[in-house]
Amino acid sequence: MYDSYVLKICSDKTAFEAKATSPMKLDLLSIRDAAAKRTGMSLRVSLPAILLLEGKDGRIVNIYPSGRLLLRQFPSLDAARETVNLLAPLVYGSETEQVQ
Q1: Alpha helices in 2-95 (DSSP H)
Q2: Largest Cα–Cα distance of the chain, in whole Å?
Q3: Cα distance between residue 1 and residue 19, in whole Å
Q4: What is the domain partition of the chain in residue ranges?
Q5: Among 11, 17, 10, 15, which Cα is nearest to 84's?
Q6: In this structure, are residues 68 and 86 in contact, taking their beta carbons and an 8 Å threshold?
Q7: What is the pTM of this model?
Q8: What is the CATH number of domain 5-95?
Q9: Is 41 exposed, middle or buried (0-12, 13-18, 19+ CB in 10 A)?
Q10: What pLDDT, on a 0 to 100 scale, did the predictor assign at position 78?
């Protein structure tokens, strides 16, 4: 379990959002393949500014360099948390660059 992020429902209540508790800068291209493999999702967009993963069930995860994850089409907070916990070692782990 990682406590380096906060998970909540978005303000427009259409998605869940995970944010890093400390400022960070993530190299998305270096984690893209591992993120897709960990989640079992397909990589739909891979750019330095955004990764977009999509599951066969319609679930979508956007990953941003700031460590923000936007999780759409997830049925519950628990389902979103499960996916964030799969991605947490890549996104919020000790190998990510913390911004000072």
Answers
A1: 28-39, 77-91
A2: 39
A3: 15
A4: 5-95
A5: 17
A6: no
A7: 0.90
A8: 3.30.310.10
A9: buried
A10: 95
